[in-house]
Amino acid sequence: MSAPSSSPTPAPTSYKNTPNRSVSVRGVTFAYRQLGPDDGVPLILLNHLAAVLDNWDPRVVDGLAARRPVITFDNRGVGASSGSTPDTVEAMARDAVLFIRALGYDQVDLLGLSMGGFIAQVIAAEEPDLVRKLILAGTGPAGGPGIDKVTAVTIKDILKAVLTRKDPKQYLFFTGTSGGRRAAQAFVNRLKERTDDRDKAISVSSFRAQLKAIRRWGLQEPADLSRIHQPVLVANGESDRMVPSVNSVDLAARLPQGELEPLYPDAGHGGIFQRHDLFVPRALEFLEP
């Protein structure tokens, strides 16, 4: 991953050709990409289990970046970022805050997907002045039902994917209906649109650390969501197998300013990717000042 150029360059408008950048803080080099307008509160995207920069759906990133500054990044030890991956959500959240502040921001919006949603909740609670608004997708609160089973579901579907020569996300993120299978294939194809300067895949050790962190999150006592005072939009598919959709309903009900986007029908954990046509305009509306 190359460092940001010292000379000004036009902001990229498409995620598939957004240059890789890096910033170093406290001995850790964070890899990231930034696109969209130069003004406005930046939207920081917090990624899901095993994901690197290239796992964000370009339709979601490009759609959001049409009106908002958008930044994706690899947390510590993931993809092209240096260091060792933490095995707690709280440590991942501290690293994300370090990254955000290293870029010079004192206020941001957050979009957290799955594990990224866990991280977003911790940041919002621990750094209330840093976070203006949150979008939580395919995620749940600490101690939420089924979250401690993510490892078992993930390993089972990875093995199934190996046997069928498919991307595990086709099983983990989408339903098994004909519509779900079509959406899964379209999503996987979109992830291949970037052909140059792609990110490094997550290492086995980092993957294991993330699984440990997720299990710990699922086994915690129920979180006190009253600490999160920011406006929060909650989105998911109605058939999420990884973080059961009941967690999204619970989040929206327990957050002081939580708002539930109607659960997307015939959609699972990757609901915001499958229904990017609905999610992106709703997210942009929510993020308006």
Major sheet size, sense and barrel closure: 8 strands, mixed
Q: Cα-atom Rg, whole angstroms?
A: 17 Å
CATH class: Alpha Beta
Structural class: alpha/beta
Q: What percent of residues are in strands?
A: 5-15%
CATH topology: Rossmann fold
Helix coverage percent:
25-40%
Overview of the molecule:
- Strand 5, helix 3 and strand 6 form a beta-alpha-beta unit.
- This protein is an alpha/beta fold and 289 residues long.
- It has ten helices and eight strands.
- Helix 1 runs parallel beside helix 10 and helix 2 packs across helix 3.
- The chain is globular, with a radius of gyration of 17 Å.
- The longest helix is centred in the last third of the chain and has 16 residues.
- It is 37% helix and 14% strand.
- The protein has a single domain, classed as 3-Layer(aba) Sandwich (Rossmann fold), CATH 3.40.50.1820.
- It has an eight-stranded mixed sheet, with helices on both faces.
- This is Alpha/beta fold hydrolase.
- Keywords: Hydrolase.
- It comes from Streptomyces boluensis.
- One of its GO terms (molecular function) is hydrolase activity.
Topology overview:
Layout: E1 21-25, E2 28-35, E3 43-46, H1 58-65, E4 70-73, H2 89-102, E5 108-113, H3 115-126, E6 131-137, H4 150-164, H5 169-172, H6 178-191, H7 204-219, E7 232-235, H8 246-254, E8 258-260, H9 271-274, H10 276-287
Parallel strand pairs: 3-4, 3-5, 5-6, 6-7, 7-8
Antiparallel strand pairs: 1-2, 2-4
Region (Disordered): 1-20
Protein name: Alpha/beta fold hydrolase
Keywords: Hydrolase
